Protein 1
Amino acid sequence: MTTASTPSRDKRVFIDKFDPDVFRALAQTAQAAGAAASHAGLPVTLVELVNLRVSQINGCAYCLRTHTHAALEAGETAQRLGLLAAWRETDVFTPAERAALALAEATTNLNGSARGAASAAARDALTDEQISAVLWVAISINAFNRVSIMSGHPVKEA
């Protein structure tokens, strides 16, 4: 028997709706991370590239749709978005973007050696304030990816 507190096996539990106060706190964290990125002088396109790369790694379709739209609105090109998964194999990304993407991947995969290499490379292209902001953006989108994936948020054609 299914009750209000015990969902059926085929019913999704949208945790953002079930516990809206927790979701609002997560949203506030993401907003603060975005503000830190802006304050550090990072362009919105770089922030969206980080959001997209993390979402690609995590396989979060909902966040990929959301942040692809946001990146295009911010002025990102379709070509660069198409190349994002292979960013290391192309020279269309700036040194700062490449450093941010490496940090984002290291934050998502939590690989010790990759983390060290990403941090060292970031020092050549980003300030400490920018490194901190990129890490907070990556941490935030990782959390949102998990909310969307675990909730099974549907992705509808725009």
Note: The two ends are 37 Å apart (CA to CA).
Protein 2
Amino acid sequence: MRPLTRIAASTSALTLAAAGLIITTSSTPAFASTCSQSRLPLPDATCTPGAYNPDVTQSTIGSTICVSGWTATVRPPTSYTNPLKAQGIIDYGYADTAMADYEEDHLVPLELGGAPRDPGNLWPEPYSGTKTATTKDGVETKLKNAVCKGTITLSAARSAIRSNWTTALSVTGIG
């Protein structure tokens, strides 16, 4: 499903789920998946290409991402992200449909100036596996710290994490 249609579809999916109209068997999602799991722990680049917050640039990092607590000022509420997560679980065709087993994660993290509300920057990242949502959080923090220290540029950090968060530290030379 294209990112821009995820909001409307997720609202419909939640409405149907609340009404008890989405029925699944033990391990089969109610709808066919439209996003591939083949790149896990990375998202499907077609469904989740990533997006940047235009307010965060190399020249504004001192007043944005490098300010303690700044991400809390732009983080969308769960009332916005939970419907996207519910739809994303369907779109990715995850057999496990428990919302608590996923983090609705920003591919380009808020810590690096990722777009907070762009559905193309959000995806349901599993907490299970060898490289998980929790693992990615550590990578995000190390990259942000390196950007704020001037060790790497914002552009280099964003590019590395958007391409492949599992190799972002080695690609940027900080880990």
Note: The helical segments are 3-18, 70-74, 78-91, 133-149, 154-164, 168-172.
Protein 3
Amino acid sequence: MTVTLEQPARALLITAEDREVPVPASLRYSSDDPLAVHLDFPADISLNGDMVTWTFSRGLLEEGVQAPAGAGDVHIWPCGRFRTVVELHSPYGMALLRFEKAALQRFLLRSYAVVAAGREELGPALDRGLTSLLGGV
């Protein structure tokens, strides 16, 4: 049985002018893909009018709320005692988003109630990933 968690996450987009613009976002976790978390943004805020989802490891999120973490397209680090910054890189540019640390930690705790750390079964997720990558070949 698949269990999916969704939690609205109040994000503030930090602009080049150091303004903070509220951005609707949602955190999602599924027992079908136990190593990943998904950060969803609605279509009305994207450049091309499509819903946008960023997927990265649950371990990266957990590490990033405590200390700077990440490589490649996603970087996460604490911003003071009560906030966490998520930096997203794409071919279209970079976005800095600030979240309440407590909301991210609450989401992580809920995800670990679904699939405990170290109990992730990789077989099905690996099969889906390879099928997607190889196009069913």
Note: The radius of gyration is 15 Å.
